[in-house]
Amino acid sequence: MSLNTTIGRRTALAGAAALAGTRIARAQTPAEVKLAMLVPLSGPWARSGLLEQMGARMAVDDINNAGGIKALGGAKVKLLEFDAGESAEKAKDAAQRMVAQEPDLSGGFGCWLSTFTLAATEVTERAELPWLTLSYSDLITNRGYKYVFQCSPTADAQAKELVPIIMDLAQSTGGKRPTKVAIVGDNSASSVSFYKAIHEIVVPEQKLTLVTDEVFTPPLSDATTIVQKLRSGKPDFVLMQSTNAGDDRMLVDKFYEFGLTAQKMAMIGGGGHWCQPELTKLTTKEHLEGVIVGLANWPGKAMQDVNKRFIERTKEPWFGHDSLFGYTHVMTYVAAIEHAKSADRRKVMESLHTMDITDGPARFFPDGRIKFDEKGRRVGAKLCVVQWRDGVPVPVFPDAVATHNAVWPKASAAPSPPPLAGGGRGGGVFNACPSPLSPRHPRACPGDQGFRLCRDRSPGQAP
Amino acid sequence: MDIESLIENVLNALTAGVTIGCIYGLMCIGLGLIFGIMKVVNFAQGELLMLGMFASLYLVTGGGILAFLGPYIGPFVGALLAGPIVFVVGALIHKFLISRVSGLKTAGTIDDGHFGQLIVTLGISLILQNGGMIVFGSTPFTVQTPLSSSAIEVAVGYGDASVFLNKAKLIACAVAIAVAIALYMVMEFTRIGKALRAAADNPTAATYMGINVDKYYRMAFGMGCGITAIAGGLMATYLSFGPFVGFDYVIIMYSGVVLGGIGSIMGAFWGGLTVGFVQQVSALILPPQLQNAAIFIVFLLIVLLRPQGLFGRSAERA
C-alpha cells in the first residue's frame, strides 16, 4: 500500500495546516528569546563594554531563574554578544554580521560609544531590529528612526541640566557664581553634541565666558599642552568630556602635576567611564578626590539588592553606570515582550513605543518612568551626579539616588583673594590656596575639605 | 593672553615635545633598524611595543621580580629589561616566520619577499593583538609610579612664568637618549655593528666575507623588537595601555622612520623626535584634535622638499 493512497489530499492539507499552526504557535511562544548585545569588547572602550556585559548577563540569569518570560510560556532569554571593536567601521561591520547571522533576534542594545551607536543603528534600523542604547549623542534619535530607543538624557540635555546644577552649587557654597568655564574633551559624537549645547545655549544663558576650549582625538598621547593652556585660562570650573578611562587618567594626572586638583578647581567629568573601578588602578584616589561626574544613570536605593548581588557575583567594587544600563536594557526588553505578548521584533518595537511604566525596570532610573517619545527618547530622563570621595564614586544628585551631599572646592567658589605679596597673577582659582613654595603652583592643602551643600534634600535629612 | 601665559604655554609645549619626541625616537629606532638592515616592512612593530609595555608591567608590579625596587626605580629598570625579553621573542619570530620571507632566501625574487613580509607581519600583528586580548584581557593597565604625576617646576625668569618638567617623562627621555647613544656606539664601533652594516649593505658580499647573514638578520630583528619594547616600557609609566595600543603608534613609527630617511637608524631617532615635537607644539596654534594631521603636514612637506628624508645621506649605509 502506497503512501499516496492512505493519505488523501484533504488529510494532507489538514496536516499541513496543523503543522503551519504549530509553527505559528512556536513563533508566538518561542523556547528562547534572543537579544543581541553589541558593545566594545576590544580597544580603548572595551572595559565599558565588559561592564555593560556583566550587568546584561546578570539580568538574563535573573529573568531565567525567575521562570523566563511569562507571557511566552516561560521562554528563556538568550543573550548573543558581539564585539563593536575600536572604530565605527568595525561596529557597523559587527552589526551587519549580527543581523545576517541572527535573523530571529527580538531586539538588541549597545554600542556604548555614541560614534559606534550612530554607525550600528543604520544597520539595525534597516533590519527593523529594536535597539536600546545608553549612548548620549542627540544625533542618534534625531534621524527619524522608528526602531532606536535612547534611555539616557541626550548629551545636549545633559549640558543644559548639568551646568546650572554646578552654578547653583558654587553659588550656594561661596556666594559667587562662576564666570569662567573651560572645556576639554575628545571629538566623539556625544562630546560634540555636549559642546554644541554648551557653546550655543549654556554659555550665553549662564553668562559664562569660555576661556579654554580644547578638543582632542582619542586616545591622548600627552596632555601637557592642553592642560597648560587650560591653566592659563584660569577657569572657575572645567568640563571634561573624554570618553575612556585612559584619557580620564591622563587628564587628572596632568592636572595634579600642575597643582590643579579638584579641591582647588572644580573638575566636572561626563559619562560612565569617569566612575569605572579601573580609574583607581590607573591613577590614585588623591587625583580623583572631589571630581564631580554628570552621567545618565546611577544605582539608587531601589537597586540595593541588585547592587549587592552584582558585587558578590562579579567581585567588582561597585555596580555603576555601564553595568546598570546593561541590566536595565535586558529588563526593559522583557517588560516590552511581556506587554506585547510576542517576541516578534515589530511588535516589540510597537510595545516600546506605547509602554508607559513606573514599576519593574522603570525603578532603575532616577525619574522612575519608562516611556519613549516619538523620537525614541525616554521621557523625563534625568541626569545623575556622582562625586569621587576617598576612592569611591558616591551619588549626590538627584535625591532619588543621592546618598551624600556634594562637596564644592573652596577655592573655586570663594571670591578671588587679593594678589599675593610677591606679585604674580593674583586672584582667581590658582592663588586661593597658595603653597609656601610657589604662589602660582598651589598644592593640595591638608584639611581643605571645601564646603558641603545640601541639594534636593530637606533639612535634617540624613545624607 | 598675557605674555607670561604665552611664554609658559610655549615653553611647556616645547619641553613636552622634546621629552615625548625622544621616546618616540627610540620607538622609531627599532623599526628603523629592522627596515634599515633587513629591508623588512614590519607591521607588527606596534604589537612589539605593546609586548614591551606588558613585559615591564609584569616585571615591576604585583609579584614581579623587580617589585622590590619600588615605584621610583622599578618601572625604568623594568622598561630596560623588557628589551631583552622582547629581543628573544623577536628572534624567535624571525627564526620561525620572518626568515622564510626575507634575507638570502628571497634575494633575487620578483618582489624580494616584500609581499610575503607584508602578509606575515600583518598576521603576526593580528595574532599578537588577539592573543594579548586572551592573555591580558581588555582592561586598561599602567605601570604606576608617582613620578608620572609630579613635575620639576623651573622658573624661567619672566614674572612668575615657569616650566613643568614631568619627572617620569624626563627620566624616560634620558633613558631613551642613553639607549640610542649605546646603539649608535654598537653600530659604529663594534664587530657586531660592522657585521650588521655589512649584511645591510650587501648580504651576498657579506656572506663571501664569512658573515652569517641570517644570524645577523635575526640579531637585527631581535634588537629592533627589543629597542621598541624598551620605548614601550618607558611609555607604560605615563600611559594607559591594552592589547590594541600598538595600532595608535605604528603610524607614528613609520612617519618617524620615513622622515628620518629610510634606512638610516639614527635618522629614525631624529625623525621620531620631530614627530613628537610637531605633535606637541602644533597644539599651540591648532586644535589638539589636529595634532596628528599636523604630523602629516610636516611629513608631506619634508617628503616634498627632501624626498630622501632628513638624514637621507645616511640611507646609503645602515
The helix count of chain A comes to 15
The CATH superfamily title of the largest domain in chain A: Response regulator
Helix percentage of chain B: 55-70%
Q: What is the residue-mean pLDDT of chain B, rounded to a whole number? A: 90
What spatial form of chain A do the alpha-carbon principal axes imply? globular
Oligomeric state of shown chains: heterodimer
Order of SSEs of chain B? HHHHEEHHHHHHH
CATH topology descriptor of the largest domain in chain A: Rossmann fold
User: In one word, what is the shape of chain B?
Assistant: globular
Order of strands, main sheet of chain B, comes to 1-2
**CATH class placement of the largest domain in chain A:** Alpha Beta
N- to C-terminal distance of chain B: 47 Å
Question: Can you describe this structure?
Answer:
Chain A is an alpha/beta fold and 463 residues long. In chain A, strand 6 (180-186), helix 7 and strand 7 form a beta-alpha-beta unit. Chain A is globular. Chain A has two domains: 29-153 and 300-371, Response regulator (Rossmann fold); 156-295 and 384-453, 3-Layer(aba) Sandwich (Rossmann fold), CATH 3.40.50.2300. Chain A has 15 helices and 16 strands. In chain B, 67% of the residues lie in helices and 3% in strands. Chain B has helices spanning 3-38, 45-60, 70-96, 114-136, 167-189, 191-201, 203-208, 213-235, 246-260, 265-281, 291-305, and strands spanning 151-155, 162-166. In chain B, a hairpin with a 6-residue loop joins strand 1 and strand 2. In chain B, helix 1 (3-38) packs across helix 9 (246-260), helix 1 (3-38) packs antiparallel against helix 10 and helix 2 (45-60) packs across helix 8. In chain B, 57% of the residues are buried. The model of chain B is unreliable at 314-318 (pLDDT under 50).
Q: What are the salient characteristics of this protein?
A:
heterodimer, A: 463 residues, alpha/beta, Rossmann fold, 7-stranded mixed β-sheet, 5-stranded parallel β-sheet, 15 helices, 40% helix, globular, disordered N terminus, disordered C terminus, B: 318 residues, mainly alpha, two-stranded antiparallel ribbon, 11 helices, 2 strands, 3% strand
